[in-house]
Amino acid sequence: MPEPFVAYLRVYEPLSSFESPLREEVEAAVDRGSVDPFDAGLWEQRQWLRSQLAAPPRLLPGENADGEVQGVGGVLVLDPEDVPTAPSATVGPGPLACPLDVRGRAAAALVGFLGDAEIPLRTAALPESVDKARTRAGAVVSELSGGAVHVLSSTWTVPLPWFVVVDPTERCVFTEPDRRRVCWRVAMADARRRVARAHSVSQQSIGDDGPTRILKETGRWLERFHPHSAVELDYGGLVQLMTESDLDADTSAEDVHAIVDAMESDDADEVATRYEQLRDFWAEFAAREHHN
After folding, report:
1. Which of 41, 82, 136, 143 could form a disulfide with 3 if both were Cys (CB 3.0 to 4.6 A apart)?
2. pTM of the entire structure?
3. What distance in Å separates the CA atoms of residue 215 and residue 213, rounded to the nearest whole number?
4. Is the distance from CB of 222 to CB of 149 less than 8 angstroms?
5. How do beta strands 172-176 and 179-187 pair?
6. Please, are residues 84 and 168 in contact by the beta-carbon 8 Å criterion?
């Protein structure tokens, strides 16, 4: 079974920054053993499959038959030494933990599914009535307003504003068979600084919609975490769609940063050139969603 074609933006926080009782749950999950970052997408997929194969089926992973939360199911762990930082940024102390928040993200995805899917598909896919599923999923999403989900995900492509967060030169590429991965890691202070600058430039250049709105939302999301956290952009299962030549040709982070610089200097030609490169590179992968 292939890994889901999903990319991720994750935050890893120091264990000391979590409040009880979540802190104890995260510590226990770390003690049990972290999820392998190369298999994170498959791990999440298995959690969903178990919820659907249970008797009776669960509406959301991470719940028992009564819809009660079963606690932190899995975490990713990161060593602060593996996070490149600017001289003014601090990361840690370690270990840094990223709860995978599968239940909350599944609820948000279900709300979107219920709004977009055709009635026959909704009926076939759900273990209970559409109205009941919508109410339960909506309630879980409402709970998220009291805390911060540590993982954002995107299917089939990477939202271009996410590349603002990273340093283009710090890309990590792993190409071993069955262990392929592309990711960047960055200190929270550096991520916030880059997003704030890009949002200001984008707002002045193109207004409040489109990429500017995404940058604003991303900045607000980052502000909810401890300032000594780390941020990771991970291509996740998208690397399954990419050949070695695709990885060599991928200059997405460089292009996005160049666009911000060009917008700041009113260089419309450079903006157009870089955007065309990005569109051409990612259009092939995004188009596969419509053929799936």
Report:
1. 41
2. 0.88
3. 5
4. no
5. antiparallel
6. no
Q: What pLDDT was estimated at residue 261?
A: 96
- For the chain (292 residues), the mean pLDDT of every run of 10, in chain order, is 86 92 88 90 86 79 71 86 86 90 82 80 77 81 72 91 95 87 95 96 92 94 95 94 91 96 94 93 78 56
Q: Which residues are within 8 A (CB) of 183 and not within 5 positions of it... i.e. 6 or more apart?
A: 37, 171, 172, 232, 233, 234, 235
Q: Structure tokens of 234?
A: 């991970």
CA 54 to chain CA mean position, Å: 27
